[in-house]
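Long-time lurker, first post. I've been practising inverse folding by hand and with some scripts of my own, and I keep getting stuck on stretches where the structure tokens seem ambiguous. Below is the full token string for one chain I'm working on. Before anyone asks, I'm not after the true native sequence, just a reasonable design that respects the backbone. If someone could post their per-position residues I'd love to compare against what I wrote down in my notebook.
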């Protein structure tokens, strides 16, 4: 039994009728207004590089597989149908975009906000090393 000095939740103080469950009583409980503010933890360059890397990882294997095992055969002169050259160009430009995105992502932890700093991923202080050791045990 609850003592009188224990604070009960608002839904526990509502009356539950004969055809009403505690869940519906919770739904009828007074709503507390929350003052939330949107905070972007990951900055725009991080988001862009992640999406570039995602699409590059999807495109590079597909074009690489086609370069290794071409399954589209076009009859006629190659000047009219340059499928292999197009696929190789897409593969090359995607590889360049992938490499640039990885380089930007390697550079970004040194110049970014506090959430994406290198120290957030690699425990550099004694306190964080001890916390890491405790969580692994």
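-- Answer (accepted) --
I ran through it position by position. Result:
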């Amino acid at each position: 039994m609850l003592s009188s000095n224990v604070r009960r939740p608002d839904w526990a103080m509502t009356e539950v009728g004969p055809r009403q469950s505690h869940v519906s009583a919770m739904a009828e409980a007074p709503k507390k207004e929350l003052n939330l503010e949107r905070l972007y933890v990951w900055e725009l360059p991080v988001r862009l590089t992640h999406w570039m890397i995602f699409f590059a990882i999807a495109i590079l294997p597909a074009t690489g597989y086609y370069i290794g095992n071409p399954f589209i055969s076009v009859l006629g002169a190659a000047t009219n149908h340059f499928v292999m050259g197009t696929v190789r160009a897409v593969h090359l430009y995607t590889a360049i975009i992938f490499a640039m995105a990885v380089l930007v992502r390697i550079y970004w932890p040194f110049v970014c906000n506090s959430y994406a700093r290198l120290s957030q991923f690699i425990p550099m202080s004694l306190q964080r090393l001890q916390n890491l050791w405790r969580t692994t045990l």
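A couple of notes from the structure itself: The chain has a mean pLDDT of 79. The two ends are 39 Å apart (CA to CA). Happy to go over any region you disagree with.
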